[in-house]
Amino acid sequence: xxxxxxxxxxxxxxxxxxxxxxxxxxxxxxxxxxxxxxxxxxxxxxxxxxxxxxxxxxxxxxxxxxxxxxxxxxxxxxxxxxxxxxxxxxxxxxxxxxxxxxxxxxxxxxxxxxxxxxxxxxxxxxxxxxxxxxxxxxxxxxxxxxxxxxxxxxxxxxxxxxxxxxxxxxxxxxxxxxxxxxxxxxxxxxxxxxxxxxxxxxxxxxxxxxxxxxxxxxxxxxxxxxxxxxxxxxxxxxxxxxxxxxxxxxxxxxxxxxxxxxxxxxxxxxxxxxxxxxxxxxxxxxxxxxxxxxxxxxxxxxxxxxxxxxxxxxxxxxxxxxxxxxxxxxxxxxxxxxxxxxxxxxxxxxx
Length: 351
Known about the structure:
Elements: E1 6-10, H1 15-26, E2 30-35, H2 39-42, H3 52-63, E3 68-71, H4 77-84, E4 89-92, H5 99-104, H6 106-126, E5 132-138, E6 151-153, E7 158-160, H7 182-199, E8 205-210, E9 212-214, H8 226-235, E10 240-243, E11 249-254, H9 255-266, E12 275-278, E13 285-287, H10 288-299, E14 305-308, E15 317-318, H11 323-329, H12 337-350
Parallel strand pairs: 1-2, 1-4, 2-3, 4-5, 5-8, 8-12, 9-11, 10-14, 11-15
Antiparallel strand pairs: 6-7, 11-13
Helix pairs in contact: 1-3, 1-9, 4-6, 6-7, 8-10, 10-12
């Protein structure tokens, strides 16, 4: 493992990005955080009270004054080239983050997620400093193939009913011959470019296909970040809408564990695979209904719930098979879901 000296984080004011900034700043790296601070404008259900970018931008500037804050857009390839030069690692988390927004405006979704990632890869390829890259991909790249895996219905959740998926979804699940969403397609295009550049030795790069990431400084909303959305709505006594029946299951990963996985690749990328399914794995799962029960146990509150139709592109069960990350990166989740939620609730009460 090598320590990184100069790290660029795109989307540095975002939820995941700000934790990457914090991680490397605390280890003495020279960190640049790049963000266009657009989240509230691009997410229909993100109001100013849940302005992740503004909150995290201020958090970084106050707590890590040595971090260089750059307001810029990954779609500006010329400026990006200038910013990338000199860094030895890039954590690329900038992106359009919501399926709903991608359906309403697929062109912007493509320009940010696909073309923006291409710009990052090209800037890295031509940079004399030769940075390694991790990108925040998504389980949505598998499209509706996820829903072809047999599931059974239990009292409070769905679960896989095929022994082949006892560990969860592996990286080898097909991405073809199924329905996708614009968001899934744009992220998949970015993901494939990463694999191509890595396979041709243009850059050291890996795509991390993330399941449900949660943690402190996350302001979720109905479009994205459902763990934080449910927790904040409960704490604020705001009504919640569940799309579907609430038995859908996700594996959940605390954000600091995600950043450790990123770092395990960036610190020693040679010979490593270019794709990882990353999440809490089979030992860290919850359904929506089960999470509401956990929130009630922790807070003594249960907000008003209503149900609506399933949303396009939703998955009844998605659990990551994290075997590759475990074997190739020597990585395991360290924070279990109950502890992670306690950290989130404590952060919110004291922020």
